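Researcher: We're reviewing a set of sequences before deciding which ones to prioritize for further study. For each one, I'd like a predicted 3D structure that I can look through quickly. This is Helicase ATP-binding domain-containing protein. If possible, include the structure in token form so it fits the rest of the review sheet.
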Amino acid sequence: MSWRPRDFNMRQILPSDYQVELVGRAICQNTIIPLSKNDSKIFVSIQLIKEYSYRLMRNHEKAVLLVNSVSLLEERATQIEFHSSLKVLRIGAGFSDNKSELIKESQVLVISPQIFLGLLNKKAVDLKMVALLILDDCHHCLIGSHPYCQIMKKYRTLSAKRPRILGLTPSLLNKRVSPSNIKGTAKRLERIMHSRLETASDLAIF
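Model: Here's the predicted structure for Helicase ATP-binding domain-containing protein, in token form for your review sheet.
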């Protein structure tokens, strides 16, 4: 039986067949999805979080959405709150260590990669308790100095109970990646993220 979205009624976002197909794949395996449209990224990430809702509430695990700008942090957190019944915590630069109780009480963390890495290093967050880890603009994993790389190194040290990974990227084609190197770049990103690059069956990859 093919997967279909549950109780999805996002205002101004009507799921298309290819979006539904991509969510179905992301449920089953670690996945990298190239999506240029913001609405598609919102749909896939929020619907996948909703699919994990029962597990997050029952097992006291977390879904973590990593975003690379303050404006996106607030936007994504508000969208998740609107379209789910989960407790969402925004963690920005002003977040202090004495608020760790808020982390325990929340089911979804929307946070920058640098701050999340800091929380992992301080053991304020245990990666084993993260059920779902979403990396927005995951192509930054290709930059060795980016916090995404350090986060994925910590992921690789886990022998069991690893989070499900979803990577979202507008495209792997940019000024630093030529068309002739695109396959090699994609394979490298898959290796770093322990994920598979996926597109819907009726879409071109880039």
